[in-house]
Amino acid sequence: MITLLTGGTGGVKLLLGLAQVVPQREIAVIVNTAEDLWLPHGYFSPDVDTVLYALSGMLDESRWYGVAGDTFNTHRRLRELGFDEYLNIGDTDRATHILRGELMRRGLTLEQATRRIAEAMGVEAEVLPMSNQPVRTVIRTPQGRMNLQEWLVKHGAKPEVLGVSYEGSGEGCPRCAEAVESSEAVIIGPSNPVTSILPILSLDNIAQALRRARSRCVAVSPLVRGRPFSGPAHVLMRGAGIHPSSESIARLYREYCSAFVVDTQDAGFEVEGIRVLKAPTLMSTREQRRRLAEFLLEVCGVAH
Ligand code: GDP
Questions:
Q1: Residue 233 Cβ < 6 Å to ligand 1
Q2: Which of 154, 163, 259, 301 is the most buried (most CB within 10 A)?
Q3: pLDDT digit string (tens) for 250-267?
Q4: Of 4, 9, 30, best ligand 1 pocket probe by most atoms within 8 Å of the beta carbon
Q5: What residue ranges define each of the domains in the chain, with the CATH number in brackets?
Q6: What spacing in Å lies between the alpha carbon of 129 and ligand 1's midpoint?
Q7: Across the chain, what does the average pLDDT equal?
Q8: pTM (two decimals)
Q9: Burial track 68-104 (b if 16+ CB lie within 10 A, e otherwise)
Q10: What is the mean pLDDT of residues 214-231?
Q11: Across-strand partners of 38?
């Protein structure tokens, strides 16, 4: 088993690479849920959805969220009726939220509801929401506290970020910790540290399992030539008091992994206790994704 920790874009590109070299049933994915929201129509779990759509071949790979070729009739109609739905939710995507919300209202945990939906989509990898309890990323700005979608989508990532915190339970899904413990290799994907990886690491049981698995865990930097390939990771890192560089990400993760991969175009650096390796980390093509996945498995000593 190979376990990947991820958010919704960089980590998911790597997941698509892994799925080319390892059968899906041998992959466990621990997914950030700190961006989840109850919406009027159901339960929105954006990173879990991106993982499910990617593994079932439905993902809109031009945006790295939502369903390819989706229609937006309901979204448009809601706005015509005067409801300010600031998230641009597609009709097919909305069906996932409706079903998940309904399953959870009937008493299933997020983990159980995810398993049910994954099965219905034909996904064979084990998709594990990081926690069954709400954990929320809160962005502190001069205009007040916001959730990530409000800051990013409603306010266009404009308000100054004064601080970032994770609010909610300290307990991850027990199955996540078990997957880490029983995996031959654990990979921390090139996801935004502040909004995707640190929320997972804030969960005690998962963090402890990772510390024990450290020798077989490798992380990949989401920064290429010192900048995020996409998204506002550098703004959020600065706002969270973290210098936006691969070196500071390596320092943040060194408790949990023994190797850290930066892009070949980046300057090397040394961080005590961690092997810093170079590889091409841009994953714009299928081939680039597969090559990076193969490299990471080699680093962890896994035959494939
Ligand atoms: P989110 O939930 O959509 O924010 O997704 P993630 O946190 O998983 O991914 C966002 C991060 O992915 C950003 O910081 C990007 O810099 C990084 N990213 C996107 N594409 C690539 C890529 O091809 N290579 C690398 N190394 N990072 C990438």
A1: yes
A2: 259
A3: 999 999 999 999 999 999
A4: 9
A5: 2-134+167-299 (3.40.50.10680), 135-166 (no CATH)
A6: 18
A7: 97
A8: 0.98
A9: eebebeebeebeeeeeebeeebbeebbbbbebbbebb
A10: 95
A11: 43
